[in-house]
Amino acid sequence: MPVSRRPAGPIIDVSPEASSLEIENLTLAYAGKPALRELTLRIPRQRVTAFIGPSGCGKSTLLRALNRLHDLNEAVSWRGSIRLEGQDIHAPEVAVDELRRRVGMVFQAPNPFPMSIYENVAFGLRLRGGLSRRRLDDIVEWALNAAALWDEVKDRLRASAWSLSGGQQQRLVIARTLAVRPEVLLLDEPASALDPISTLKIEELIRSLKSQLTLVLVTHNMQQAARVSDYTAFLHEGELVEYGPTDDVFTNPRLARTENYITGRMA
Ligand SMILES: Nc1ncnc2c1ncn2[C@@H]1O[C@H](COP(=O)(O)OP(=O)(O)OP(=O)(O)O)[C@@H](O)[C@H]1O
Fold it and tell me: Does ligand 1 lie within 6 Å of residue 4's CB atom?
């Protein structure tokens, strides 16, 4: 049955929410080949925003731009602006390490460091220094709890992180990222390498974390986007096609391109 469509018009509909990130006219190319075209969107604070769209539409490229992961790629050219809590992330006074602490990132494949569970979570805290052993212990416990992993690992904190299952490893990586108290957590298909039970745990975790921080999730899984996100941005060929509350985008998409994608008629 065709869904009734609201009239096409302004596609950006997150107006009542306070923004964490504001992206304006962002255009990005790899070796001159455009990957993002004039993207403008606001990412609401303490909400889950999903980026969806067909393979190659620019989801990961956009995510990586939010904590300046393109800085080291000389083939990347870009223009536009990205603001975090009102501040331009490319301003000369912004230290990129501090930006990446504030805007943490979790990738598709779990990547724990070759060290113990405890040391993985303490890693970023030790780099910053100045914490007593007791304070470090407290934060490690807090972060493992926040990542819904504490109960499973509290008796083996000195074991290798690699002794954990894939799903546990991914929650450990999330704990490691949370330990340095980011304001934003970027998740690039965080569950796509995991089994269904681990996937559900990650989804529960994402939902629970939004009381503390802003989450941005790239996913190929439409059900996952519908289950966990408050807002959904649909990208196609580097353009932002439609963006709004997830319920609206999934049940009453404004544009045929969005409908074709979410109903599986566009790969
Ligand atoms: N490091 C890179 N160098 C050159 N081109 C790149 C690079 N990364 C991505 N691209 C190109 O940029 C475009 C967008 O890629 P991107 O990975 O952002 O898309 P995506 O929507 O995340 O895709 P997928 O869902 O397959 O992960 C694609 O055409 C891709 O080939």
Answer: no
